Amino acid sequence: MADTVLVVDDDPHIRDVITYALEAAGFACTTAADGAKAVAAATARVPDLIVLDINMPEMDGFEVCKELRKSSEVPILFLSSRDDEIDRIVGLEIGGDDYVAKPFSTRELVARVKVILKRRRPATTPNAADGDGCEGVLTFGRLTLDPDRFVAAYADAPVPLTATEFAILREFLARPAFVRDRNAIIELAYPDNVHVSDRTVDSHIRHIRGKFQTVGCDNVIETVHGVGYRLGCCE
Fold it and tell me: By C-alpha distance, which of 118, 135, 117 is closest to 126?
């Protein structure tokens, strides 16, 4: 069954262009012309991903994202007419997964959608041919990550993560002792050569830390000054 993408933009031409490109790539699409309709549509039938314009009247994309994040971790790809890094950072800080500036290449947008959705799917193992495609629960101290159910927890307290945050943390747990620089994290989280900045990576790490701090884990990812990041103390 095709993944469903909700396309939200107040410009009907842009909605049509995005919908045409996504449907040509095999996705099913629904649309919304403003923020309020987007919240209603995403609540009535949760899509697999939302392409969300930031600059809309009355209820902008940031407000939509904040409202949806109260109850949903549906992946969100922001669109903006400004290639402004502050918009990008704010979008990631409030729970977005990625950001594309207008005017954009539809090929790039489709590629980013595929990357985000790929992160949410369970990874298969060599045993998949035997009927077991489960990756298994990853643990480190009191930190647990279940890729097949897309669930993260610390001391049994669930921690809601976006698809990008989950992908980053999963790679840290796969090799807990490894130190990774920003370029390595970009390659892990964005495997299809999608360009992102160092500040985007820092924003994802900061957001992961903040979420785990709320459940009592103050150092889930630690900084190795001058090198990069590694998994912290999760006891």
Answer: 135
Q: How many CB atoms lie within 10 A of CB 146?
A: 17
Provide the β-strand partners of residue 143.
140, 154
Pick from 143, 170, 173: which is nearest to 158 by CA? 143
Q: Under CATH, to which class is 134-231 assigned?
A: mainly alpha
Per-residue pLDDT tens for 193-220?
A: 455 666 777 888 888 998 999 999 888 9
Residue 89 CA neighbour count, 13 Å, CB half: 9
Distance, in Å, from the CA atom of 199 to the CA atom of 91, rounded to the nearest integer, reads: 12
Q: Where are the domains of the chain?
A: 4-120, 134-231
CATH (residue range 4-120)? 3.40.50.2300
CA–centroid distance for 101 within its chain: 17
Question: Per residue in 135-153, pLDDT tens?
Answer: 578 888 889 999 888 889 9
Question: What end-to-end distance do the CA atoms of the chain give, in Å?
Answer: 41
